[in-house]
Write a structure and sequence with these properties.
Largest sheet: 4 strands, mixed
Order of helices and strands: HHEEHEEHEEEEH
Radius of gyration: 50 Å
Number of strands: 8
Distance between the termini: 163 Å
Helix content: 25-40%
Shape: globular
Mean pLDDT: 80
Structural class: alpha+beta
Number of helices: 5
Length: 208
């Protein structure tokens, strides 16, 4: 009877070891679960996209510069001759003849930069307006254009206006106005102008 009771006893040391093992296992599992729950998910970093370039910005083509002719006088005494020089314009002489001729007249009325040529157009003369129309080229000048000078000076300034105005089309007709009114008589000596004027009519009716 005593032997049977001894066989049923569980050793205390083994029981304690078993309980400790279960506690360790449970504690380890709880720690692992706590660590996993605190980990923030990380998003994968997308690799940089290669081979994509920005579209090139459109470039404005440079404006082509063109040349217009400006006419001056050269000579002394009663004999003078017309001399052409060039002025640069950004206007298209075919598509924008009015703008191109305005550039020519701006240069003409500013006076010559070359000492070998001269002008008989009075200083202070300004361009009121210029139009290229079907019936010809209309040049409207300030009243200063009519000031001073004899017949030779008057003829010279009219010739400068006509030749400069027709530099893009030598056969074109020119209408000269002063302050918006047709110029019929120029100067105190009464230089009569039958308009429209052309290079041909100038050579037939006047002598430089």
């Amino acid at each position: 009877m005593v032997k049977q009771q001894q066989n049923r006893r569980i050793p205390v040391s083994g029981l304690v070891a078993g309980i400790a093992a279960v506690a360790v296992t449970a504690g380890g599992g709880a720690a692992w679960w706590h660590w996993q729950s605190n980990q923030k998910p990380t998003r994968p970093i997308a690799p940089p996209i290669s081979g994509i370039q920005e579209a090139p910005k459109p470039q404005t083509p440079p404006v082509a510069q063109q040349q217009v002719e400006v006419f001056w006088l050269k000579g002394s005494g009663v004999r003078q001759q017309l001399v052409a020089t060039t002025a640069t314009t950004t206007a298209d002489i075919k598509k924008q003849p009015t703008a191109a001729l305005k550039t020519a007249f701006d240069n003409l009325l500013s006076g010559p930069k070359d000492g070998s040529v001269s002008t008989t157009i009075p200083q202070g003369t300004t361009l009121r307006d210029l139009k290229v129309e079907k019936d010809g080229i209309h040049v409207n000048l300030s009243e200063d254009f009519t000031a001073g000078g004899g017949s030779t000076a008057m003829t010279g300034r009219v010739a400068q206006v006509i030749y400069t105005a027709t530099s893009l089309d030598p056969s074109a007709k020119v209408w000269i106005e002063v302050e918006g009114e047709p110029l019929e008589v120029l100067g105190g000596e009464g230089l009569e102008l039958e308009q429209p004027l052309t290079r041909q009519s100038l050579g037939e009716n006047f002598t430089l």
